[in-house]
């Protein structure tokens, strides 16, 4: 839940398809909320720029080995089949929506390594 500004209640629903905070701000792309109008400067109204939902479970899970950003192949945007190096992960992040509404499940403390990649 998020407070958009002092005039709106903390109303942010992860289950909503549009995922707009209270006040119905300008939405860019697939649910990415941006600062509306002239609120970008000297105003008290701000919007969510990026948000992720994480779920914790105590059930163990097998994880793929971590990628080695230094030893991996050079990323080429023309070939999306290259392994997910740091460059590829960054490219996918800037090409996709800033607001990821797909829940991620992390089951052990070992899963923290995936968050840190």
UniProtKB/TrEMBL annotation:
Keywords: Cell projection, Cilium, Flagellum. It comes from the Bacteria. This is Flagellar hook protein FlgE. The lineage of its organism: Bacteria, Pseudomonadati, Campylobacterota, Epsilonproteobacteria, Campylobacterales. It comes from Campylobacter jejuni. It holds the Pfam family flgE_D3.
